Amino acid sequence: MDAVSSILCLVTGSAIPLLMIFLLIRRATRQLAVAGAYGDVSRRLGLEVDTRGLSLHGHLGAQRIWVGQVMVGHGPERRELCWGVLDHERPLALGLLLRRRGLSERLWRRARAPRVALPDLLDRAIEASGDDPHRVRTLLDAAAQEHLLKMLHRWRDVVVTDESVRVLLSQPLATAAELQELVDDLRGLSSALGSARAAVDPPDALTAVSAGLQAMARERDLDFHAEYPAAGGVLDGRRVYVGPVRTENNYTGILRLGFRPHRTLGLQVLPQTEPDGYWSVGQDIQVGDDAFDDAFVVKGYDPQAVRELLTPELRAALCALIASGARLEVDDVRMSLTGAPLDADELERLLKIAETAAGHIGW
How far is CA 151 from CA 73, 147, 154, 158, in A? Predict the structure, then answer.
């Protein structure tokens, strides 16, 4: 018996470190595979490759995409999750929330908007809410339903809001084929919702601002999208969008100004008051202007080049934009102001400041 026990102890003692080595090797191999998949698909989509191998991110036309790991929550609730996120080309402005039934409240809380009853097949799979049930049901036409059910079958944990389509992944995808499939599915559903949005009447709460936005579109030679309502087009070589966005409590304005082609700096200018999110990587770059440094987190590939870009005139223009109470984000692709007063005259004023800021950057 003693001999048998000794052999068992020897085998067990040898197996534990071997198992640990195997698990470490498998983890390292998977991390390399994930980084390779991110790189392959990023190049295929024309995105910059994340040299850390931790994400796929960038802009696909007017849509921002992120696939990778992110820290969420605070204190003891803080944890790492893996999300695939694609912003819609335009915010839907319907107070929309679609989420799989049973999805944890900790991952995505329910909206305060009214619940929406959907066709049986969808209703069994998801919870839906929105400011106006009829408008939400109109948005979910046959094509949108087909894409949504396909995603729920393939990815399971899908969340759709006015701003984006999101998929919660149990772990990072380790093959380029799977990652490309995810990107294609995100784009397919967002595109279907965007197309269906054209048939949905504008929310009643936005009737008062519609005439002002239409007048802005006419005066600035922009297209007017009555269904949102919103103005969009190109000004001096820069793509512009001005319209409504639904926040937690009410409708506010959103302004996006795209930049002309230029050498990328990895620029990120984000509010100082919030923790790093999906899109923010790298260390904060201080420019020596207390008011500006207290208001923004600034990041980029070359700190000195970023400091030279952020001239006093540009810093003053960016501070003038957030004086409206809105949230400002700037990157290599565009300037985005969210939560501005939903007033056509005020949005026109902010658009002119944004154009001035873009002129100071030279993009």
Answer: 26, 6, 5, 7
* pLDDT at residue 80 in the model: 74
- In the chain, residues under CATH classification 3.30.1460 are 206-361
Q: In a 10 Å sphere around its CB, with 0-12 CB exposed, 13-18 middle and 19+ buried, how is residue 207 labelled?
A: exposed
Which residue would you say has higher pLDDT here, 106 or 172? 172
User: In this prediction, what percent of the chain has a pLDDT beyond 90?
Assistant: 69
Tell me the residue type at 279. W
Task: Considering the domain delimited by 206-361, tell me its CATH architecture.
Answer: 2-Layer Sandwich (3.30)
The residues with which 270 forms a beta bridge, in sequence order, are: 297
Determine the Cα–Cα distance for residues 249 and 232; give it in Å rounded to an integer.
25
Mean pLDDT of 278-296: 77
β-partners of residue 253 are 244, 340
Q: How many Å apart are CA 40 and CA 177, to the nearest integer?
A: 10
Tell me the residue type at 230.
A
229 cis-preceded (ω within 30 degrees of 0): yes
pLDDT of residue 257: 98
C-alpha span between 103 and 92 (Å, rounded): 23
Q: Which long-range contacts link 312-315 to residues 24+ away (Cβ below 8 Å)?
A: 313/360, 314/357, 314/360, 314/361, 315/287, 315/289
* Region label for 221, one of left (φ > 0), alpha (ψ between -120 and 50) or beta (otherwise): left
